[in-house]
Amino acid sequence: MPGMGHGLLSDNPIVVAAFRALLRQQGLLVLIFMAVLLLALAARVWVSSDASAPDPARRDEPRPRWLLRVVFGILWLFDGALQGQALMPLGMPTQVVQPAAASSPQWVQNLVSHGLSVWTLHPVSAAASAVWIQVGIGLMILFAPRGWWSRAAGLVSAGWGLAVWVFGEAFGGIFGSGLSWMFGAPGAALLYALAGLLIALPDRSWLGRRLGQLILGSTGAFFLAMAVLQAWPGRGFWQGQPTPQATAGSLTAMVQTMGQIPQPRPLASTLSWFAQIDAHHGWAVNLVSVIALAAVGAGMLAVALAWRPRLAAGSVIAAAVLCVADWVFVQDLGFFGGVGTDPNSMLPLLVLIVVGYLAASRPIASADTAPQVIDQTGRTRWLGAASAVCAMGVILVGALPMASASMNSHADPILSLALNGDPGRENTPAPPFNLVDQNGQPVSLASLRGRSIALTFLDPVCTTDCPLIAQEFRQADQSLGTDVGKHTVFIAVVANPIYRSLAVVQAFNKQEHLDHISNWLFLTGSLSALQAMWNGYGYEVQALQNGGMVAHSEVAYIIDPSGNLRTRLGSDPGAAGPTSASLATLLADELRAVTPS
Amino acid sequence: MSARLRVGAASALALLAAACATASAPQASSSAQQPNVTALATTLTTAGATWALVPMGHLDDPLNTFWQAFALPNSRGKWTLVTPAGVADSGGLVAADAGSGGVVIGFRPSQALSFSPLAISTDGGTSYTPDLLTGALAELPDSLAVSPTGDAAAVVDAGSTVLRRLAGTGQWQQFATRTSIAASALGRACGVRSVTAVAETTAGTYLGLACSHSGTVGLVQDTAAGLQPAPIALPAALASAQVDVIRLTSAGGGVTALLRLDVGGATSYALAWTNPRHPTWTLTPAISGRGPLASTTIWAGGAALLTGDSATDRQLDLIGVNGLSWTSLPPPPAGTVAVAVTGPRVDALAAGETKFTAYTLNHITRLWSLTQVINVVLPYGSAT
């Protein structure tokens, strides 16, 4: 996915610090919001005389649904906590989504890239949003056990799960090569979405064993399909790695890769041991996997068609063993290493299977024979609703900033700060200069008195950053608007001792569509005049030999209308797409600060 | 699927893909067909020196590939590194004879650059004067040309446009486009795909074309009456050939064009030339049965073809000064990327990652002897 990288390391301290600060701020907001709301609603409950009246319509929650709700509620909370890891803002696109989509068709990559652009442009607010949305969903599922709010929680869970499945997991890789149940197909987020849909079902759906059999049958069919895929020749699952020089098979390579990720030593040792086993007995390991998948799948499919308690129990136990083994030996539990987003697919899959088994093996015959209510008071009902509203508030704490960010196509200025460091503040007279602009007209610092200046140095035949910096200047000009813009001027000074003619400068302006911008000046002059300018600003330019681009530093200055140098900014623009307009926003802010209104 | 598992899956797939690629690489290489674009690596002989343009560095990484210019002045027998500075040259270099012993070297733009800086030297590459072409030089060894009177022409925008600058004026003007050529009589007969070469003479500009229609040689001259086809007649055996002009020069006061002729999937090469003493076009015999074209060199009435599947298995064929038949020379040393022919001297030029090696052919023993090694310090990372 071209354009998704921005040249920043995931552990960039400026981004990490900003992420943590935002989480603290939003966390405080969440706490205050929840406290106020809970107090208000609690008071309402205690004051209301009707609040203690029983609700004869309410019934106890079916045990399978309770299990599903509690486990997936905890999983969402856990995943939300994982989203709070320091590497998430910058690591999510490059270390999580890009690898997920890499083997998928181009249309999937394009879709994912498009959807992920919000995160790439606004990594801090997007990462924080993901934390609160998932924590909020978890709280809502856990603390709204029954009724409309509970079903709404299921729908929210399903919706967010699907969004994560598409944009975060690239459809769980189902359109990519190397699809395997062992590696997590069809994607953990899809299982979360399915769980959410089950929670959203009306109560009557849980009557009888039909829903349980449907879950077991669907899972069984899925296992059978995965067994066929696992057995399919030419996909690398049969080969292992007979000698160290041989190419590792798919499973061996996967386990070896997982074993290299930072994690507790016992887990790494376990993976290393299994990698050795698979390397030497790849064929046998895959044979066992295929047979086990097929047997479990056939068993569950059979009990879906005709209920047989022993076969069902046996199939579920075998599925549990298989899932746990894969979770430990292949999926490596999933949440170590700094960018783990969830505990992988095996745990949610196993929960779905157990829920299906419970629903099928201990059916609630009808509404009349269902367990009687143990929770009938209006007070508890109010508290449930209050909790759900609070949880929805937590979701909104995450969702609203993400929605706001999605409307802003300019990258967060934090990216420019992360690339260049904090701006240097100064208040000294700017070094004077006497050069000519792109039209050959003389321009000096004195001639610009009364206007704010954004000044940088650009090589007009540069192939990489200079055109991007020029575009940042152009966008800064656009974002200033006419009121401030008419009092500002954007200046680039040639940073090439050889290619510095008016023709070259004009060609650059045309290339960057700057030739019609009235307050854009690309200054040049004799080599001695340019050197005087470079020296005055402590600027270094070096013409590299043997095919290299001219080396020069990347810096921008803000000069106030009185001719004082006020700010020194690093001007590394990063990659074109992900950091687009990040520097521009900073420049515009700095110019506004020094330009009289 | 969690992040770590995705990373693992991607790595595992990458390993498998790499293994598959390794296993299938020889097959892919051997099945490679003649490239459509003639390699930029070439040499050029001017009045004062012979010039070589070759890529060095990490050739599998465009941003760390650096093209180098070497000069072999007539006054001394040693190659010298003379790459012009000031511009990243990862996109490639193109050279043209600027007359009076001078040379003009054009930088093909790479990455965000969309025009071609030029560098002119009149002292054998010791110093350069910067100049500018306001278009992007096409990836063709003869995309730039200068006439003895200083008029210049350039093929830009991947062969779709020709720009021209008259001596003494600073402005490049559009001279022809693929569309305007296609509208001419020859353009219609040729079914022009693109402009492949340009040459400047005192009598006007010549354009080489790639034709999609069979039996037409796409070589046109700009005259007062417009674009006129060069009267080059193909022999009956090649009457159904699809012809591309792949090299073109006005050296020696005449015009010489190297043609690629494709007949039913078989490729051959022939030289067409004319000069003031032989105003009628001569078409040499065609040479066929060669591997993919690795490099070409052209001069007045002559050309050298370096062909072969790999850098260690090259074949070198030469057609001499106004010669009538091709001569096969001993296979050049491994790593040869271009051949320089300076009078009787034939140099095979090998460019490794940082080492430029010149081998000279002993015509008596028919052996190549190593004559010079130049180590080049490359500015890795400077274009990223």
Write a concise synopsis of the structure shown:
The complex is a heterodimer of chains A (597) and B (384). Chain A is of the alpha+beta class.
3D architecture notes:
- Chain A is of the alpha+beta class.
- Chain A has three domains: 33-48 and 60-205 and 390-409, no CATH class; 208-363, no CATH class; 413-594, Glutaredoxin.
- Chain A is 57% helix and 8% strand.
- In chain A, strands 1-10-9-4-5-6 form a six-stranded mixed beta sheet. In chain A, strands 2-3 form a two-stranded antiparallel sheet.
- In chain A, β7 and β8 (551-552) form a beta hairpin.
- The longest helix of chain A has 35 residues, at 13-47.
- Chain B has three helices and 29 strands.
- Chain B starts with a helix and ends in a 9-residue tail after the last strand.
- In chain B, the strands form six sheets. In chain B, strands 13, 14, 15, 16, 17, 18, 19, 20 and 21 form a nine-stranded antiparallel beta sheet that branches.
- By secondary structure, chain B is mostly beta strands.
- The longest helix of chain B has 28 residues, at 3-30.
- Chain B is 10% helix and 48% strand.
- Chain B has helices at 3-30, 178-182, 185-190; strands at residues 42-45, 49-57, 65-73, 80-81, 93-99, 102-107, 116-121, 129-133, 144-146, 152-156, 161-165, 173-177, 192-201, 204-214, 219-223, 226-229, 242-249, 255-263, 266-275, 278-283, 287-288, 293-299, 302-307, 315-319, 326-329, 336-342, 345-351, 355-362, 367-375.
Helix fraction of chain B?
10-25%
- The total of helices of chain B stands at 3
CA-based gyration radius of chain B: 21 Å
Structural class of chain B: mainly beta
Keywords:
heterodimer, A: alpha+beta, Glutaredoxin, 3 domains, two-stranded antiparallel sheet, 19 helices, 10 strands, 8% strand, disordered N terminus, B: 384 residues, mainly beta, four-stranded antiparallel beta sheet, globular
Write the layout of secondary structure elements.
The complex is a heterodimer of chains A (597) and B (384).
Chain A: H1 13-47, H2 63-83, H3 88-102, H4 106-121, H5 123-143, H6 147-168, H7 188-199, H8 210-231, H9 250-259, H10 265-280, H11 282-305, H12 309-329, H13 346-361, H14 378-406, H15 413-420, E1 424-429, E2 434-436, E3 442-444, E4 452-458, H16 465-485, E5 488-494, H17 502-511, E6 520-523, H18 527-536, E7 541-542, E8 551-552, E9 555-559, E10 564-570, H19 582-594
Parallel strand pairs in A: 4-5, 5-6
Antiparallel strand pairs in A: 1-10, 2-3, 4-9, 7-8, 9-10
Chain B: H1 3-30, E1 42-45, E2 49-57, E3 65-73, E4 80-81, E5 93-99, E6 102-107, E7 116-121, E8 129-133, E9 144-146, E10 152-156, E11 161-165, E12 173-177, H2 178-182, H3 185-190, E13 192-201, E14 204-214, E15 219-223, E16 226-229, E17 242-249, E18 255-263, E19 266-275, E20 278-283, E21 287-288, E22 293-299, E23 302-307, E24 315-319, E25 326-329, E26 336-342, E27 345-351, E28 355-362, E29 367-375
Antiparallel strand pairs in B: 1-2, 2-3, 3-4, 5-6, 6-7, 7-8, 9-10, 10-11, 11-12, 13-14, 14-15, 14-17, 15-16, 17-18, 18-19, 19-20, 19-21, 22-23, 23-24, 24-25, 26-27, 27-28, 28-29
